[in-house]
Design brief:
By secondary structure, this protein is an alpha+beta fold. Helices cover 32% and strands 29% of the residues. It folds into 3 domains: 3-109, no CATH class; 111-264, Jelly Rolls; 275-347, Phage tail protein beta-alpha-beta fold (3-Layer(bab) Sandwich). The longest helix has 24 residues, at 86-109. 29% of the residues are buried.
Length: 354
């Protein structure tokens, strides 16, 4: 690239910016007189336009002020600007270089990416720091990495998070008004409707309200919030605003009702990664909500009594018909076709005696 032509293009950029004009006849003549002028203009314009996308960021405001500080008022023509205002031209060139680098840095350190899966799709995503997200079907996770934080949000569905250790950058997963904070660990977050379940697979995590500050992050076990039956005589939780989990513990934060912590079988909780759906004395309403992630035909609970029934078992995620037939065989319910191809589960009427 002809450095002299880039300087001319930078001078034109200064003049047009300060005058507020998009184009002037003199600029059009300069642009048309040599194809290399147009090439130089594109070199200048690229970073300048990128800057416009991020002009409100604090990083670029600082860089902009530093690059253009002390610049005199615009001269009348590009020749005068180029000849009499080397400071302005140099500042513009420096500004463009800084802007390009700052925009690149801004994009890298303020990434916002959404990962989602549809019906019949499961996905493993490796993030820039080596952390991994395993998404169940019909799930969605938003990821935003910054210089100081790794921030994610589970929008729907279920996901497992295997977190690369980084004590300086806490890894947070927000869901339903709470956030799970870790630096290096593995945990599962499940959204069933508005019910939130957090299961710790290994390491330690702390669960906080979404509005609570992430730092200072000081995970530790034995904070008095213990799984029922895990330790004889363990005190009941008294403060649900900061909950530390140990491996094998699951926190349930229901939309209605009191939160609780249970000791669970981690293999059962993570059975979805192997294409299985496992339940143990779970209400049918929650079981159906989970099976609907895998069903091509939605399953609907027809009445409250049916939804309160309890069920245990292991099913293949794709065997919805077998799941429905098993329910109808072992529970006092009936299954029939509903609107839009749905399967309706309802309380079966008692047989009439003669």
């Amino acid at each position: 690239m002809d450095h002299e032509r880039v300087e001319q293009a930078a001078a034109w950029r200064v003049r047009l910016t300060e005058s507020g004009a998009a184009r002037v006849p003199e600029f059009e003549l300069w642009l048309a007189e040599d194809p290399r002028n147009e090439t130089a203009w594109r070199v200048v314009q690229g970073p300048w336009r990128m800057l416009g996308e991020y002009a409100a960021s604090s990083e670029l405001i600082v860089q902009r002020r530093a690059a253009l500080a002390g610049r005199p008022r615009a001269a009348r023509g590009v020749a005068a600007a180029w000849r009499r205002r080397p400071v302005a031209v140099a500042a513009a060139l420096a500004f463009i270089a800084v802007a390009a680098g700052a925009v690149l840095l801004f994009r890298q350190t303020h990434q916002y990416v959404v990962y989602r899966t549809g019906a019949g799709e499961r996905r493993v995503v490796t993030l820039a720091d080596g952390s991994q997200i395993t998404l169940d079907m019909k799930s969605e996770v938003a990821v935003r990495y910054t210089v100081h934080f790794r921030e994610l949000e589970l929008e729907q569905g279920q996901a497992r998070f295997d977190v690369a250790h980084d004590a300086e950058r806490p890894f947070t997963v927000a869901a339903e008004g709470h956030k799970v904070v870790a630096t290096g660990t593995a945990f599962d977050v499940d959204l069933l409707g508005r019910d939130l379940r957090v299961t710790l697979i290994e390491g330690h995590v702390v669960v906080l309200p979404a509005s609570a500050p992430t730092r200072p992050y000081e995970p530790q076990s034995g904070n008095g919030v213990a799984a029922p039956g895990a330790t004889a005589g363990a005190p009941e939780p008294t403060d649900w605003s900061r909950i530390v989990l140990d491996p094998g513990q699951q926190l349930l934060m229901p939309a209605a009702g009191a939160p609780r912590i249970d000791r669970v079988d981690v293999d059962r909780v993570t059975a979805w990664e192997r294409g299985q759906v496992a339940f143990k004395n779970d209400p049918l309403s929650a079981v159906v909500a989970r099976m609907n992630r895998y069903a091509s035909r939605p399953i609907v609970i027809g009445d409250a009594r049916t939804g309160d029934l309890r069920i245990s078992g292991v099913f293949h995620e794709g065997d919805v018909d077998g799941f429905v037939n098993t329910l109808a065989s072992y529970l006092p319910i009936s299954a029939h076709s509903g609107p839009n191809g749905s399967i309706v589960l309802a309380d079966a009427p008692a047989p009439t005696r003669r």
